[in-house]
Design brief:
single chain, alpha/beta, Aldehyde Dehydrogenase, Chain A, domain 2
Length: 232
């Protein structure tokens, strides 16, 4: 979607080797083979994407396992999926570098211990998604605290591009990203980016903004002296 031009694009796929991962890999190969090249936002973004993909292609620790249809016009993003092992990923920090666009690196782990080791070694991420079912409950319980320490938004069995404007939603990222309002454009915390506090002292009600008047003409829920006002 959008040629992968989302800051929450899943650029890393970390999983334990086995039949389930093999099925995922084959499905991804088939899907990418039908993927049309998509226009990127600017020539500079496209050039940076091509450089990132070329660096992965040139890295002997990485194998390209899938790709989209060839580009037929300028500034088109060709999707790519790469594969490496947990040991190689941990040994080469460049493999975790973001490639802004429709490219992902699949990190294949031998077992759950390698999986937790890879996650523990990650830099801060905007989002992290846990794909699991009931049979994975014990492993999921081990992973959630690790993921929450590295990402400001942890999902289960979904995709991180959709957001809701609500008190619980943040853009993502490690500390301090989710506590610094200058770094989020998602959720109600983002309001602080666009408002300026003003103190009105001893003004007559008629001179106050409507939201501050005692009769609350906009009928908005307000916090008064630290207490949330109930609005009928």
């Amino acid at each position: 979607m959008g040629a992968g031009q989302f800051c929450t694009n899943p650029g890393l796929v970390i999983a334990v080797a086995g039949p389930d991962l093999a099925r995922f890999k084959q499905a991804a190969i088939a899907a990418l083979a039908q993927s049309e090249p998509a226009v990127m936002l600017t020539p500079g973004i496209h050039a940076a994407y091509d450089r990132g993909v070329a660096a992965l292609d040139a890295n002997p620790a990485v194998t390209r396992v899938a790709g989209g249809k060839p580009a037929d016009a300028p500034n088109r993003c060709v999707g790519a999926l790469f594969e490496t092992t947990a040991a190689q990923f941990l040994a080469d920090g460049r493999l975790g570098d973001e490639v802004f666009g429709a490219s992902s690196v699949m990190v294949v782990c031998a077992d759950s211990d390698e999986l937790t080791g890879v996650i523990a070694g990650l830099e801060g991420q905007l989002t992290a998604t846990l794909h699991a079912d009931a049979a994975d409950a014990d492993l999921a319980a081990r992973l959630v605290p690790l993921l929450a320490g590295r990402a400001g938004r942890v999902l289960a069995n979904g995709w991180p591009t959709g957001v809701e404007v609500c008190h619980a939603m943040v853009h993502g990222g490690p500390w301090p990203a989710t506590t610094d309002v200058r770094t989020t454009s998602v959720g109600t915390l983002a309001l602080a980016r666009f408002v300026r506090p003003v103190c009105f002292q001893d003004l007559a009600p008629a001179l106050l903004p409507p939201a501050l008047r005692d009769d609350n003409p906009w009928n908005l829920p307000r916090t008064i002296n630290g207490v949330r006002e109930v609005v009928a």
